[in-house]
Amino acid sequence: MPGPSTVLVTGAAGFIGSHTCVELLEHGHEVVLVDNYSNSSPEAVERIAKVAGRPPAAVYEADLLDRRALGEVFEGHSFDAVIHFAAKKAVGESVALPVEYYDTNVGGTTALLRAMRDHGVHRLVFSSSCSIYGDATKVPLTESDPARPTNPYATTKWLCEQVLHDVCRRLPEFSVLALRYFNPVGAHSSGLLGEVPRGVPDNVLPYIAQVAAGRLDRLRIFGDDYPTPDGTGVRDYIHVMDVAQGHRVALDHLDDERGMRVLNLGTGRGTSVRQLVTAFSDTCGTPIPFEIVARRPGDVAELVADPTAVAQAWGWTAERELTSMVDDAWRFQLLNPSGYAN
Ligand code: UFG
């Protein structure tokens, strides 16, 4: 089993990045954080150190598209691996701002690859997404199912995967794991780290949490006429600490195979929006008001992972249940009613 290493984490102050940093620090890795705080806050970095009980090796406020700043990060350390989260991730926003999405997500990835190549760092875990599968004709989804992105956000993730495939094909010293995660939700069980959306949340679980807390009046369920058991959208929600653990385990498997490998990170269990509302109501002890409204453009009926490939490759599965996702999200909401601002 490979030992502790020095890991660069981009987008480290974000939702998945911050939880992954805690997981890495708790397992003895040296972690260097980079974030431009465009959709996160330096307070997340304080919380990472507090939860992990020790600080990261270094923290940089830098944009990956700032070539000089990124060069300084690489010149200051000797990295064994990079975990690349930094990206824009709101589906609706990506439809309105496609250029910004391609620039940040694809341009940020190629800028990072350039810096890695120039500094002799060749091991990368890339944050990909189940949204690549788009309007799936069947579930559960395996990694070999076709990509059918339905919005610019999903297309940027798919394009990044193509870039990474190509880089690995031409530069055999590179080894890359692209993790397609399904819907990461929940929070750290300490209640200190969680998801802190700017403004009104786009994603369903933070939205429900704010309804439960009385900050929003009701959930709008986007359609109940999908071909699913109760008509509402079905997703494979995965606890953010399972996603974080998946990244930590991925570091140990980067050298299993040469080149590029794509793996799903999901539970294999689908939950409808109505089921999620019921689970949250049970946890917070009060009904969540909701109304059914029209479908959201770009949404799909059902996305559920087949998690067999990662289980076979690493002997690892996401274990946390929906109840712990909901409990942890609610605890974080209660302890941090205004996000990291308080
Ligand atoms: N939904 C509602 N009301 C809302 C928000 C969402 O009914 O206010 C429904 C959606 O229609 C969907 C389900 O809840 O059926 C989940 O929607 P999310 O917006 O939470 O997540 P998506 O499935 O759209 O996935 C997107 C990205 C993923 C990313 C995920 C979490 O496509 O890559 O958000 O960030 F992982």
The count of helical stretches stands at 11
Give the terminus-to-terminus CA distance. 41 Å
CATH class of the domain at 6-187 and 238-266: Alpha Beta
| Percent in helix | 25-40%
Strand count, sense and barrel status of the largest sheet are: 7 strands, parallel
Task: Give the averaged pLDDT, no decimals.
Answer: 96
Low-confidence stretches: none
DSSP E strands, number: 14
Q: CATH homologous superfamily of the domain at 6-187 and 238-266?
A: NAD(P)-binding Rossmann-like Domain
Keywords:
342 residues; alpha/beta; Rossmann fold; 7-stranded parallel β-sheet; 3-stranded mixed β-sheet; 11 helices; 14 strands; globular
Summed up:
The chain has 342 residues and is α/β, with parallel strands linked by helices.
Word description of this protein:
- The chain is an alpha/beta fold and 342 residues long.
- It has a domain at 6-187 and 238-266: NAD(P)-binding Rossmann-like Domain (Rossmann fold, 3-Layer(aba) Sandwich).
- The chain is 39% helix and 18% strand.
- It has helices spanning 15-26, 42-52, 67-75, 91-96, 98-118, 152-170, 204-212, 240-253, 273-284, 308-314, 322-335; strands spanning 6-10, 30-35, 58-61, 81-84, 123-129, 175-181, 183-185, 219-222, 234-235, 237-239, 259-265, 271-272, 290-293, 302-303.
- Helix 2 links the parallel strand 2 (30-35) and strand 3.
- The mean pLDDT is 96.
- Uridine-5'-diphosphate-4-deoxy-4-fluoro-alpha-D-galactose binds next to strand 7, helix 7 and strand 8.
